[in-house]
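User: Please predict the structure of the protein below. I'd like the answer in structure-token form so I can feed it into my own downstream comparison script.

Assistant: Understood. Taking the following sequence of 74 residues as input:
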Amino acid sequence: MFVQIDGEKNLVRDISTRAILNRDRAGLEEYKLRRELAKRKQEEELELKTKVNKLEDDITEIKSMLHELVKMRT
């Protein structure tokens, strides 16, 4: 059994447990979608950072090898 909370159209109180429940299913689905999109964005950003770091390491290695080649030729 639930009782409507005054001034809150989507909130009710469960009489037996005294818990406050949100009945806004559309809002919940929207929240879950936003959370999933934020998680994907964070994963993509991490992947891009990893790729950039690897490219920087590769460039550093190439530069080092070029310096060695120049030293060998002189």
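That's the full token string. The radius of gyration is 28 Å.
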